[in-house]
């Protein structure tokens, strides 16, 4: 770990990293709140079924709040995606300064890999592999190393979370309810669990790339801090 007294060699990337990490953390928290709201809906529904009709207004209020929560989640999804793609461009733009060679993507190509429908299911994993490996050129050419396990798992979890989220929203739309006790509820629960896992692992990936670039940058500067200094 490098001492915090030294400035980050790529301050713009560090700011982008902190923004993405914060948004991912918010996304995880909202997913946990959505899970709690789903279970509260089930409890309220069963109480009403058990002849507790006085709880119907509370259930209606709960559903209204849940719709607001889901709208907020959608906004955070979009903001996180925009911030993450911007971070990829900044982080990839640092690779040349770190001495990385043989790169297969330019910063613009790395960003576009996440934006083109269809290819954005498979191409981003190659971009992330290159970004992670090339962030520390001292370990050898990035093209000769495979994607780290955390990167592969994160991308798989993210795709699964997106698929489950889409299924939950489509099923909820078809049922005409924000929550129900059918397939939409099941997809929602699975999606939120996957979203939490993907957000947590995503934080480790983004922070890991930033830390590797910081370490590599200072190792190229004899006058800068070295790992273990402090």
Characterization of this structure:
By secondary structure, the chain is mainly alpha-helical. It has one domain (11-219). Helix content is 69%, strand content 0%. It has six helices and no strands. α1 (11-49) packs antiparallel against α2 and α1 packs antiparallel against α6. The longest helix is centred in the N-terminal third of the chain and has 39 residues, at 11-49. The radius of gyration is 22 Å and the shape is elongated. The chain starts with 10 loop residues before the first helix and ends in an 11-residue tail after the last helix. The model is unreliable at 1-5 and 225-230 (pLDDT under 50).
């Amino acid at each position: 770990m490098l001492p915090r007294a030294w400035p980050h060699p790529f301050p713009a990337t560090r700011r982008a990293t902190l923004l993405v990490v914060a948004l991912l953390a918010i996304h995880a928290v909202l997913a946990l709140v959505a899970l709690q709201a789903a279970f509260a809906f089930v409890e309220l529904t069963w109480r009403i079924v058990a002849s507790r009709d006085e709880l119907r207004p509370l259930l209606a209020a709960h559903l209204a709040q849940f719709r607001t929560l889901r709208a907020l989640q959608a906004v955070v999804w979009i903001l996180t995606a925009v911030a993450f793609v911007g971070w990829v461009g900044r982080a990839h733009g640092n690779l040349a300064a770190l001495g990385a060679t043989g790169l297969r993507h330019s910063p613009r190509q790395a960003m576009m890999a996440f934006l083109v429908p269809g290819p954005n299911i498979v191409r981003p994993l190659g971009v992330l592999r290159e970004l992670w490996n090339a962030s520390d050129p001292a370990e050898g050419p990035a093209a000769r190393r495979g994607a780290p396990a955390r990167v592969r798992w994160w991308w798989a979890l993210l795709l699964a979370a997106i698929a489950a989220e889409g299924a939950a929203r489509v099923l909820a739309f078809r049922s005409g309810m924000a929550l129900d006790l059918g397939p939409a509820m099941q997809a929602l629960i699975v999606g939120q669990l996957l979203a939490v896992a993907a957000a947590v692992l995503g934080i480790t990936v983004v922070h890991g790339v930033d830390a590797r670039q910081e370490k590599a940058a200072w190792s190229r500067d004899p006058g800068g801090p070295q790992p273990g200094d402090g």
